[in-house]
Each structure stands twice: as C-alpha cells, then as structure tokens.
Design goal:
It is built from eleven helices and no strands. It is mostly helical and about 270 residues long.
Length: about 270
Amino acid sequence: MHDPLLVVAAAVLGAILGSFLNALSFRFNTGRGMGGRSRCMCCGHTLAAKDLVPVLSYVWLGGKCRYCGAKLSPQYPLVEVCAALLSVGVYFVSPTPGLYTLFLFAWLTILFIGVYDLRHTIIPWTFSLTLMGVAFVSLFVGGAPDMWALLAGPLLALPLFLLSLVSRGTWMGWGDSAFELSLGWLLGLSMGLTALMLAVWFGAAAGLLLMALQRLAQSKHSSTVWLQKAFHLPGGQLTIKSEIPFAPFLAAGAALVYFFNVNFFSTISLLW
C-alpha cells in the first residue's frame, strides 16, 4: 500500500522539476544560462515567486503575464502536469528511494527530449547521451543483464538508424535512433517493440489528423500559420512528406508500455 503523503510529495516534486524543465527547454542552446531570476520573455519583467508556482500560477493568471498581459505558452502547465504524473507513476513502479531517483531522472530526461524535439525538431545529443548512460545503468538493477536485455537497445534502434542512413537524415532524424536505443534498454525487447509500434501508429494518426485540420481550415479560408509555427513548414503547408517530430511519439509509446504494462508480445517474451 502506497503512502498517500508520499504520492502527494511525488506529484509536487514532479511539478517543480517540470517547471525547471520548461526553463531549460526555452534556454538550452540559446546562450542563456540557468542562473539568474526568471523573466517574462515578452516584457523582460523579473517574475516574483507567486508567478512561478507550477500549474497554479498559470491558472490564476489566466495564461497571461501579470505585468504585460502577453499570452503564456500552454507548454508551461502541460509539462508541469506531465512531470507530476511521471513522478507519481515512477513512485508506484519503483517506490524505493534509489530506484525512484534513477527512473525519475530517466523519465524526466525523456520528457525533456520529447518537448525539445517538438519545439525545435531536433534532439540534443547532450540529453541523448545522458539518457543512454542512465538506461544502460538501469540494465544492472537487480543483477547482471542477459543477452536479450543488452541487445534490446541496438536491435530496436537499428530500423530508425537505417532510415536515417538511407535518407541521409531526411526521413528520420539521427537523434531518434539514439533515443530509441535508450528506450530499448529501459523497456526490454518485447515491451520496447510494443512501444515503437505504438509510436509509429501515434505519429501516423497525428499526421493524418493535422492534414485533415489543415484541409478544413483551408476550406473555410482560415489561417494555417499555426502549422508553420508548430512544424517549421514553408508556407504553413503540411504534406505527407513534411517533417513531424517523432521523439514525442516515442516517449508517449514508451510511457504507455512502462506505466500500464502494455505488451503485444508478452507470450514471446516468456521465451526470452
């Protein structure tokens, strides 16, 4: 039985760390360090502590800056809520302090990679390599890993790597295969393959949905600028050949498998 107070503490800790991830996603590779006070990105006003309470400040302020009225990105509360849910989920799966710390770090890194890829259509190698190291360490939790556990990462990453190699990075970004390598080590071969399949399905469904929304907007002579901003598309046109960030779908598939024990190949995995 899990202690309700620890569940609440895990959620609060996750939301706080999610707030940090938001700041990191906006500042990483911009030349701005993580030091110093937080400021509004529109008016530059220094934010007070009451402006920085995870989720609650966004709701209280109606999604706008207290000082200039500029709209705040919905990324702020969404990432904070996701981080809180991940923290609680990790606590339920791995309640011991050591394992909780290890896997929370892994899942928050996964969350950051997904968010950053969604914003910038690139996966930073710094975080890919960090996640890779954490995932490899996780293989040794509970003892030495078997051959299939060690091979899970490379085998699942191979199809994405080959897509990048054949297309020279146009069909699939190079960072996606490195990301999948880590997810394979974290999930194992059968659950990792399940997660990869889910990611492909999610990505295809999202692409078709966005194309349908674009056609609907064009038929009503509405603006499709949001597509251009979201996916860096020339003229805001989304086609079957458009580049859509894949890391968020890889992360979503992995989370569904890890936290809800979804496994399409459970019978086969018993043989391994």
